[in-house]
């Protein structure tokens, strides 16, 4: 099986590519806009015809899109997260219409969840910011393209190599810089929100299962830990892994997103039914692997943000 992976140099893309290479008889072809990409594809800039030419030359049996903006202004987010999937869908439809397409979406597409409830794929999508809105636009472009495509709506990924652009990686970087002194103060924003954390290695396994599952799949599947965890708990676990003996100070006014999206928790029943997938890495193992992996990775041009 020839698998074309866009965004293979980013956080999620590196784990996905590594896992796919372990599949029997799989050949993984990396694509993206970075110099490290084997296949030159820039979904935010190239025309559908140019992308189609690159896809045709790669002759993939399957395509995985891990590319996504890590942040920035609304124009950048729209170019990468909304235009990108639309261009990819048009290119695959023209050059490899029989290929299965797996796209990494985001739980941010749902917007705020209802406290105490898990969000199913049929829930209303009410993203509050440009990131979630542009990711949702990309999902719509792919699911309406008439392809053998599935969008995996990923929760908050955590695990080895988490970039400093997301909360787990950022807190890890701060803890490494702070040291272990008892008089050290670690200033952070509001940590009262609940998030659905999922190990990046479990995300990679979900992609592999989505590529190899027989028959058509549901257009959208949630990939998360399946439970809401206080952000404060994640930070405390990271501090314990670091041996941090200082004080963590929260600024309740420091994160407007935490106040607006106080609860996120995905219902992962559909993924279990369609793919036979469930997360196998508990949060403690994810945190331990993140800390043991060393300094957080710098996000590449194909990196995906943590919502």
Automatic annotation (TrEMBL):
Residues 3-224 form the NAD-dependent epimerase/dehydratase domain. It comes from the Bacteria. Residues 108-128 are annotated as: Disordered. Gene3D superfamilies: NAD(P)-binding Rossmann-like Domain (3.40.50.720). It holds the Pfam family Epimerase. PANTHER family: DTDP-D-GLUCOSE 4,6-DEHYDRATASE-RELATED. Belongs to the NAD(P)-dependent epimerase/dehydratase family. This is NAD-dependent epimerase/dehydratase family protein.
């Amino acid at each position: 099986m020839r698998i074309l992976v866009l965004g293979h140099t980013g956080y999620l893309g590196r784990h996905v590519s590594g896992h796919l290479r372990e599949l029997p008889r799989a050949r993984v072809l990396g694509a993206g806009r970075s110099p490290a990409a084997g296949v030159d594809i820039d979904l935010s800039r190239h025309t559908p015809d140019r992308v189609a030419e690159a896809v045709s030359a790669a002759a993939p049996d399957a395509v995985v899109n891990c590319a996504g903006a890590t942040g920035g202004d609304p124009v950048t987010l729209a170019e990468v997260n909304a235009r990108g999937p639309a261009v990819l869908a048009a290119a695959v439809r023209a050059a490899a219409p029989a290929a299965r397409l797996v796209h990494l979406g985001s739980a941010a597409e749902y917007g705020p969840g209802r406290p105490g409830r898990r969000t199913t794929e049929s829930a209303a999508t009410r993203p509050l910011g440009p990131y979630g809105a542009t990711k949702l636009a990309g999902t719509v472009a792919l699911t309406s393209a008439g392809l053998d495509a599935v969008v995996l709506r990923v929760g908050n990924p955590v695990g080895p190599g988490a970039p400093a652009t997301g909360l787990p990686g950022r807190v890890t970087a701060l803890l490494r810089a702070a040291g272990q002194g008892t008089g050290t103060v670690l200033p952070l924003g509001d940590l009262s929100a609940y998030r659905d954390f999922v190990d990046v290695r479990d995300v990679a396994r979900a992609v592999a299962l989505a590529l190899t599952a027989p028959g058509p799949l549901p257009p959208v599947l949630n990939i998360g830990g399946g439970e809401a965890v206080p952000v404060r708990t994640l930070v405390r676990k990271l501090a314990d892994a670091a041996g941090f003996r200082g004080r963590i100070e929260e600024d309740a006014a420091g994160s407007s997103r935490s106040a607006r999206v106080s609860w996120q928790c995905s219902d992962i029943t559909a993924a279990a039914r369609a793919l036979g997938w469930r997360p196998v890495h508990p949060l403690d193992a994810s945190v331990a692997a993140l800390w043991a992996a060393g300094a957080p990775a710098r996000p590449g041009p194909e990196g995906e943000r943590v919502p």
